[in-house]
Queue: 4 jobs
Job 1
Amino acid sequence: MSQHSLADQAGPPTEEHPNRKKGRILIIDADDCTCDFLGSIIKLIGFEFNMVKSVEQAMDLLEKSVFDLLIADLRLPNSQQFLEASLEKNPQLQTIIMVQQRQIFFEAMRLPGASFIHKPFNFDDIVEKIHQAIHNHHLRQVESHIQRLRHEIFRL
């Protein structure tokens, strides 16, 4: 398991680095090349991330930490059950599922709220998916906060 924080390396957002954003990403993939590629991309776009190689490691980390986005390879053992349980426990957790085979893609479409990307993917596609997922996560947080405020103000 590895943890990377760009904030420690690059400091706060600046005009020179407008892409430095707050967001935590958990990556689950056993393939070293994919992990290295994703790690490089996520560092470049300015998010913090943790990387694990198994579903078991991911479950342990999700119990200890809060993440905005989960990027997982569906081919890992028990990944389908893990993703279903994670989304049930935390419906606001944004999820990007990496798939290679068309058959697996159709199985994964049953996961509510998850988006998909086919392996091998390119830089632009994964960056767009990550930005979209983090944006959706922040939007859900704001909507939830507004709902709590309405409840407090109007005692609904």
Job 2
Amino acid sequence: MHKTIWFVIMMANLVLSSCGTKSSPVKMGVTTRSELVAIKGEPLRVDSIPIKDGELLVFSDEEKFQLSGDIVIHSFRNPKGDESLLIFWKHKFKDCLTTVKKITPLARSHTSPEIEYACPDQGLSVIYPEGSDSISRILEYEKK
């Protein structure tokens, strides 16, 4: 009986925490560079990327925003709290047509393959190492 109650409490907590996630004030495909800086403050650094008119603005906690010209098109961040659990995202994406794709590392890279679990309708993907259920990063992009 005690184990059942504990399980119910843990599941309720997971459901409530997943329903309570806030959407970012940064809207992919809409927010401009100046609006991003007004929301997030000055970036710690700006990296060039091999995309025409593209750059990567890096903020605290390694939160990154990719720009194409003056418009934010992607964000990358580390998971926080329950977001680091694959089960959290399976619940969050339960009503979404999801895709699962293996990301193969570059030939000269020493990293192992990763999996991208995506919900295009929400404009979200999560990345985790193959064979694991711990999320390593979260990607946000323009909703389809």
Job 3
Amino acid sequence: MGANNFFSVLGKAGVILVLSVSAVSVFGQDVVKQDSIPVKPLAIYQVLKPSCMPCHSNEGRDKPRNAVNFSIWEQYTSTERLMLAGSIQKEVQKGSMPPKGFLNSHPANALNAEQVNQLVQWCDSLKMKP
């Protein structure tokens, strides 16, 4: 059956089949290769991406990006990561981050208790590394 006949049969049957495969999304889930993420582990990156990285990444504004830039996290020295981990943990536990102004326009990006706990544990793990 030629391509024209195939599409003719599909059109007559009233059936349209569209199969879309994306490198970015499969079944509504982001597909991210572990080695391509700037912050590891992947579970932490998935918390940081919507709630922190809009401001604290290469795409963010100068002031928050200069405070901590998750796009270049692996480029920080272990001492810098240690200091940043303490600040991140403190701000997240206080509920200061993400800030209220950001959450007013992006309420879905608020951190829930489980995500706060994940970030706190991640920060603790960074503080234990030499």
Job 4
Amino acid sequence: MAVLLSVQIADAQVKSAEDARKAVESAAEATANPKKAAKVATWIKLANAYMDAYNSPAGQGWRGANKQELQLILGNDKPVSTEQVTLLGTPYTKDVYATRNYYFTQDGMLDIIEITKPVYEDALDKALEAYVKAYSVDAKGSKTKDIAAGIQLIEGKFLEEGIAQYMFGNNALASRKFEAAANASETAPYSKIDSMAVYNAGFTAEMCGDYERAAKFFKKAIEISYTEEGEAYAKLANAYVNMKDTLASKAVLEEGFTKYPESQSILIGLINYYIQSGENPDQLFALLDKAKENEPNNASLYYVEGDIHNKLGHKDEAIKAYAKSSEINPEYEFGYIGIGILYYNEAIEIQDKAAREMDDAKYMKLVEEFETALMNAADPFERAFAITKDKDIKVNIAEYLKNIYYRFREEDPKYMESYQKYDAIVTNGAAAL
């Protein structure tokens, strides 16, 4: 085992920064020779040299490695300091080395390698350029697979950097790294579209407020059919809103709605548009009617119709549409949930209004209206609870029912029994079901 381990460690050795730099200089010098520059091997060697230079500061660690095994492999290469940090709400142990930082998860897995002292700032770009040149001189295509594999490796490194910068909160830089990954992936002979890299380039651009850049990538994501169930349309529309192009935003939302009528993000965007613009929202219902024509038995489309009416303040129409969704599909719990939430929210609004009312008579009338709305929510919630097979949804519904029956628990033993039933479910979660 000792011999095997020594061999593994030897294989894992990386070049020192100085050796890596010398290797790049030597390989680059060869490309200046016309005869050598005509050979594919010359450019592959340069690409490999740049990749070695890129990897050199990272040490012998790799993502997914266990901290205990790394301590053995690294030997005398020890961190100069260790600290506890939190990245996007996730705790990490950060080991600081002379040329890099290692970020370990709570279970001791190396998750992020941050290079702090690179041999070359643009090593990945230079390696990619060398592979492109290698492909151009490889007339026989003898090294196509090797070149493609090298480009794929570069793409992976750009993705890792993009994810790391996102975790660090450097969204502008993360967007650039994701873009670099997408561009590398499309580079011949690898020639593949990395749709996730394209989307993430837009996502991180949006997060740092660069809406023109975000729009560029969300448009491309839609073109390559990577829409995240309609989210790309909603995000592109939001970018247009921030660019003060409301007409373009509306057009994108309407196009997205025809393809993803169940997307809440698109729906909310459209509703906000019609409310803020003062335009007649009939077009929204016309788009939904088209979707119904294609899928007349799709209960969720009627639920969406209910949501639109609800958000526009059309109470009766909302209840009718929600009820229709459950009528079409008796096992579709969301229609009943929609009605329950509508009445429950109405009760909360009345309660808030009552709390501000100083006149006793008006106050008592509001309390009566509050209790009526609250009890109106109970039956649809009970129906949804009985229908749904999803335990997490049951627990969420139980939270509403617990609050409703708490109000009436002293009025009738059956309400006390219901309160205790749902309180136990809320307390114990899905395990109680």
